[in-house]
Every structure is written in C-alpha cells, then in structure tokens.
Amino acid sequence: MKAVQFNETGGSDVLKLVDIPKPVPKSSEVLIKVEYAGVNFIDTYLRSGLYPVPLPCVAGREAAGVIAELGADVSPDLGLQVDDRIAVFSPGAMAEYMVADAKAVLKLPRDVSTKQGAAIMLQGLTAWTLCRDAHELKNGETALVQAAAGGTGGLLVQMAKSLGATVIGTTSTAAKAEVAKSHGCDHVIIYTEQNVEEEVSKLTDGKGCHVVYSGIGQATVQADMAMTRRKGTFVTFGNSSGAIASIKPLDLSKKNIRLVRPTLANYITEREEFLARSGELLDLVENGTVKVNFGAEYSLAEVGKAQEDLVSKKTVGKLIVKI
Ligand SMILES: NC(=O)c1ccc[n+]([C@@H]2O[C@H](COP(=O)([O-])OP(=O)(O)OC[C@H]3O[C@@H](n4cnc5c(N)ncnc54)[C@H](OP(=O)(O)O)[C@@H]3O)[C@@H](O)[C@H]2O)c1
Fold first, then answer.
1. What is the total count of domains within the chain?
2. Which of 21, 133, 243, 258 is the most exposed place for a label (fewest CB within 10 A)?
3. Given a cut of 90, is residue 246 above it in pLDDT?
4. For ligand 1, what atom is nearest to the CA of residue 312?
5. 9 CA distance to ligand 1 centroid (A)?
6. Which residues of 32-58 are buried (b: 16+ CB within 10 A; e: fewer)?
C-alpha cells in the first residue's frame, strides 16, 4: 500500500511517499481502508521531533474510512462490522490502510460523511473537550479564542457560542477576520493591526476574559495570561509559535489564574469518556450547530506541502488529505 512515512526527524523533506506492506490488525484491532486523513499541527511536532516517536513512523493521527477487517477478538458489543463507515484518532493515518484499537473507532451516522468525520476527530474533539473539560464554559462568560479562523479555533468559536459565551477571536488578517466572524465571533481583533491586550481590556471593562484558549504557545503566553481575568482560566493547548519555555507559578497568584495544559488523548482515555464526548460532537455536527469549514484538499503525495501550508499562517479551516 502507499503511505507517507518518515525515517528521521526534520523538515517536511523527511516525509516520503513509500510502498509498504498493508498493516495486519491485532486481535483487538480493526483494519481501516482510509478515505480521508486530517492534517494537524501535531503531524509537524512528530515530524520535527518536538514530540518524540519511534521511527520509522507513518504520518497522520486522524482519519475516516471503512472497516476492511475485524481482529479475531473484537467484541460484538462494540457493534462494528466490515464496511462500517468510521472515524478514528490514531497513528498511521496518512496511508491507504491503517489499524486502530476497535474501542477507539467512532461509527459515523448516515448524515456525517467520511470527509467530515476525518475533519472532526482530532480538532473537533479537542475543541469540544477544551470547552467542556479544560474549562467548563458557562452561559454569559467571555472567551478569547486565538487563531479563530483556524481548524481548531473555528470549531471552538462555534462551540463556545453554542454554550452561550461571548467570543472574542484573533486573526492575522482582515480576510481571516471575516472567516472568524462567519464562525460566530462577537468581536475579532486583527493582531497585526491592533493591540490585542488593549482591545480585550476595552471589550471586558478592564476585567479580562473568563477563559483564554490559546494554541499559539510562546509568542502570546504573556498576553494570554494578562488577558485572563481574576479567577479565570488560561488554557494553553498548543505550540504553533513554539513551546512555552516557562511559566512561574507565582505569576498565577497575581490574579489567582488557573493554568491548564491539556492534550486530547488524556480526556478520552476511558471508553465512556470517548463515547460521551464524541457522541456530543456528532450531535453538534448532525444538527448543524457546528459546521466544518474546509480549507485546501491534498493528495498523499502532497502531505509535506500540506504541513508546510499549515505552519505558514496562510491557511483557514480544516486541511484534509484525500487518500
Ligand atoms: N492539545 C491538543 O490535544 C491539541 C489538539 C489539536 C490541536 N492542538 C493545537 O491547536 C493549535 C491549532 O492547531 P490547528 O491544527 O487547528 O492549526 P490552525 O489553527 O488551523 O493553524 C494555525 C494558526 O495559528 C495561527 N498562528 C499564530 N502564530 C503562528 C505561528 N507562529 N506559526 C503558525 N501559525 C500561527 C495562524 O492563524 P493567524 O494567521 O490567524 O494567526 C495559523 O493559521 C496548534 O497549536 C495545535 O498544536 C492541540
């Protein structure tokens, strides 16, 4: 089968389109014929070595397609069958076939396509756990969402609005600000033209936000903390500008801020957690509360370009690879 693999860490040139044997599912796994795979920032962290993984490694963590084979011990209680349409958050997605733990696959309802499924497993579940688990967003709260025209940010804005929050988004350009507004942002700050801290202060009567959601990392950490109100929550969930070097616990005491640094996997470790949050997410997509805004579509041969585009700040919405 064809797969995109890296044998060493580095730039996007370490990604190679290779022919490798189709994986064989273990007894508790399923073999998936992949139709779409999602492009995510984590792909770049794994490839660059920021998040170490054993090599060689097939790229990609998010996919959807159909079940091609069931392992011998996959429990009938899971209700899975060959040809079921499913989505999965699991390694090895940038390939014609992948294997995944049967307990980690999500059956897609009729109204959710495999393209949508591949787009929401990682960014969608992340965004939903950010506003349900990292900080349980309440009606009437004010949330700041950095990169509000991006994949995760765009979904997070829609979810935060559905929970009754006032949402302030940030983007780098006016064109992206329009995208952020279409997601439902009440206010958008273009950070290349405006002072974000000053604007947030004006919009919140100097109090700051109940929660700041930032996947930017090092470049905005000081501003993110400054824009979090007294007893508010600063959720730092990514490193798109680089990993945060250090935060001093004493700095949190200036306003009794709660600091949360979540990763999706640790919110859905237990099957009950996975089923609860993914079921809620599918409901949001099926009933139209959350819409996936697709950006560019790529082929397997273009995965390196897709990763370069994602880190270039030029993209909006969800980048997807059609297998
Ligand atoms: N913790 C988790 O489990 C988890 C899961 C999923 C994603 N994440 C994190 O969420 C963040 C967003 O991921 P995504 O895949 O949805 O990407 P994305 O938001 O679609 O793209 C990144 C956006 O971040 C903004 N940005 C600001 N400074 C940047 C910089 N120095 N380099 C690159 N981009 C910069 C850009 O928007 P502007 O042009 O508007 O600035 C860019 O378009 C990443 O940090 C990722 O690691 C974390």
1. 2
2. 21
3. no
4. 33
5. 20
6. bbbbbbbbbbbbbbbbbeeeeeeeebb
